[in-house]
């Protein structure tokens, strides 16, 4: 086979006359170009490391400082207050330098030290400035004089064009709230969920904890916060994600959808070609730190970028007690799954990235391959969908040597994973609800064996050219994946484009070696483990009910005219809908971010408050006046915004309590208060729109993404506010729970949205 010959740099044959050595010039050329590419990448990383390492200064500022010091020395002025003279005397004892050389070396050493001191001072000053969060609590749309002055100082210290990781060392550490403050906020959050008797009991447990065990646990937490970069994130990653022994499919992984009604092409291979190329362009920018850090408040306040570090070349590795995340610095291939076969596809040729048309060619070769799966190969990925312990044991027993290890390494060390699905999915106008529901279920679990759920993300390309992502959760949160996804969709549609016949632009290249089919030797014992994992996964997948719908009665534009935060409006609508659906209030989780701090991830906003419950009850009381309902709505919305701001600025409840609980386990002490765990029966999350401008390109409406229910008797709700006029919702629940119904709850959400907007005089604009 031609590709086999190209893969070997030289061949030799032993003959009676000696050794006949034959060189493959093409293979040697590819090896040379691969080496050049690797060294270029190392140099770029080294250069960017220096630029980031000296931020907010620049490498060239070293020369300016040293020249300045040397100039003052030659002008007979000592800028060092005697330090240069001391360095000179020290150098004089060596006896190896002339007086002139000693003066130059002394000046350079002092200038370098002064430069480093200036960098440390600037960095510390910027960190102190970024520790101020008073701007978040100002009235929306109004910036005080003090905040303007503060913004000017922040921009002064960060005026250089920052790279992705430039701000990392200047970000403040996540503060540890006072135990009493956290306990008081907790009691306030559970008040609407408990009757007087239960609340009185909880109040007693909380106060006892705050005065006795709490301070002891807090001391250890303070110690960790001084030593570690972030006192929450490592424990959060380990105990919430990596130590979980249940399936990560549905329970942890989440998904992202394609455009709603835009069809760039209907050719599966072509869509894969452009999208894979767009993802690789994003990875190239990421490697070079050319992705701009996300800035808030008029491009002033940076968010932490640490979660981008493991986006590519990463896989979750199963363990019996805890999983780990395996990350390699670089990967030059992807693995593609199609009809039960795994293919390794190289991403570079002639020392460059494959072009979209060339990737399409490689994907088409896989689609045209009619070979049969090897025994056990077709459903192998079901191991990643089932319980973690059987997968960990199977990996150790059957995939730690030989062909299986080589093939598994190819999967786990791939840049990312691609599934070429042989079914059609996506939004259909003739069946909007059913098509979106099926689309969501296909993305979150598929057939339970055709997505590699341990990879950071699996790109799924359907037969009709629609696409989506399934993302693993431990390495990063949804906004990070959303940033990648929006960039990819924008690059594909606005920059790469397609030819008239639907193919990627450009020419094919017959010299590119064929994709390599991975080889497996899976024994029957392992196949039995695969089948058991598949049975577990199928039972879980069949129990998931989804309702995905596009709400376009009104959107952010009309909500803002009502002088209300769009997120608070949606959250209060969810509270009203949930009360109508279940007849009671439930503990509600809304994800907020703490990326104003270094290595920050998320915090919980407890959206069910005393104020929101009062508003909901008023809405259900026909005797209440519209004026009073509006008043209660304003109070509830303001409370929600305040809680959101507290969560973002490190004053949330749940991460602090979580870490106190972990410390109590390390110390082997029991706390009745910390054991009072209530399930999140309503778990919500907003997917932010970060990159696509719908005003310029209204056709690029996305369906957002979603996740499975957190509680067996609860709902998972993800929503994306799309431009000014629409919101997309994804509602999930368990089929096995008789109390929940995703479609019923979806209808309640839409009705609640319209009912609340009807309180305002803007109600005439609520219908189309």
TrEMBL record:
Transmembrane region(s): 104-126
Enzyme class: transferase
UniProt keywords, alphabetically: Acyltransferase, Fatty acid metabolism, Lipid metabolism, Membrane, Mitochondrion, Transferase, Transmembrane, Transmembrane helix, Transport
Pathway: Lipid metabolism; fatty acid beta-oxidation
Reactions catalysed: (R)-carnitine + hexadecanoyl-CoA = O-hexadecanoyl-(R)-carnitine + CoA
Location of the Choline/carnitine acyltransferase domain: 174-751
Pfam family of the protein (one): CPT_N
Record-annotated active site: 473 (proton acceptor)
InterPro entries per record: Carn_acyl_trans, CAT-like_dom_sf, Cho/carn_acyl_trans, Cho/carn_acyl_trans_2, CPT_N
Protein name: carnitine O-palmitoyltransferase
Gene: Cpt1a
